From TrEMBL:
InterPro entries: Cro/C1-type_HTH, Lambda_DNA-bd_dom_sf, TPR-like_helical_dom_sf
Protein name: Tetratricopeptide (TPR) repeat protein/transcriptional regulator with XRE-family HTH domain
Lineage: Bacteria, Bacillati, Actinomycetota, Actinomycetes, Kitasatosporales
Protein source organism: Kitasatospora paracochleata
Amino acid sequence: MASPREPNERLRALISETGLSGDALARLVKRVAAERGERLQTNKSTVSQWISGRQPSGNTAAYLAEALSRALRGRVVTPTEIGLPEHAAPTPDWHTDTLTALAELGRADVHMERRRALGMTVYSVAALGLPDQQWWDRMADSASARRDRSTRRVGPGDLDAVRDMTAMFSTVDQRRGGAHAWTAVVQYLTTDVTAYLHGGFTDDRVRRGLFTTAAELAYLAGWMAFDSGRHAVAQHYFTQAVKLAAEAGDAPMAAHVLRAMAHQAIDLGHPDEALGLAAASVAGDRYRLATPRERALLGVVHARSLAAAGRRHAAGKALLRAEDDLASAHPDIGEPDRVFFFGEASLAHETACALRDMGDLDASVREFRRSVRTRRSATFTRTHAVTLGYLGAVHARMKNIDEACATWSKALDAMEGVRSGRTRQAAAEMRSLLSPYRRRGTRATGEVDARAAAYLSATT
């Protein structure tokens, strides 16, 4: 750990690598803190003091590390890497008893101070390595061993109630973003649903159904945290969701979560780990037993991970397979509720992201436009706003600034009432891409820049 009397050269080097000024880094640290519910007073002078060896107080070291990670495009920087203290908090563990870990996670998250401590946990790349087949077998055995330990009987009506609540929370997330109702999701999962999981079941169908639905709810808690930019928290819930799916013996449900973990790893700049997770999601029974719509979802994220890893040919083949899988979906085929959002618009969005990452910007624009055209924006408001934000960014990369501004104006319209880390990121990217035009720009660039700034300020 750096001495208070010695300059922190590692921190100085990382700040230089980001290219950020002291003022810009201070603003980014304040933004990260605000997303965690804390207000900081940091400025250029504060950053200079950190470089000279002064230790940040409280949670600031973790906020600084997160800010540097974002500035370095998702490369994970830990507080200890820059010679600073950090909260000691557990990383995701595949081997702790599922229900014990779930209850502990809930106790941490429903109390503000412990929730903040958990929020400081570093996203763990090491935890992305998946357990071996023996682990999956043991999880199925542990599910059998825990049956009928309680006098409480859990029947089909209880299962239906949990499914209804999960569907309701999913709908809110799709419309309003992950920052809405996250605490309610966690409380319901770790109190009512966990109590059901400890109960005795009327039959094995109910047991498996409840563990699968609990996995969906844990996944949703993780996805909402991911959407809010709280990646370490998301990783904990994703891990629990995989474990619940394993106890349910539900291979496609496990695949659904692994796909989300791959998506997160792509966004955080870990293409190799993302590809490993995505490949696992389409392996064996996880893909074979999935319905066509879910196969398409798994497949298109696999394609994105291949694109991120630089495997263009394989990514193209995976995109074609995902298109074929979605074309095979039919109303008579019962699809799980968790894929209610995935259709042509979502497939086009993910395809556009893959094409963008492969450098085919013209094709990316075409697919983003298809996504915008085919989406029910009133139902899937958050994703609609993100799609428009991404489309505008591609236009900007192609130097079509007028088209970018027109698209971003629509994105900002859609962001009204949405609280999401991804919409905030889209708005921040608007301002970044418009910065070269700020002094010599048109009225349209000025209006979009001002609206994006106002949105970021209002959602702090």
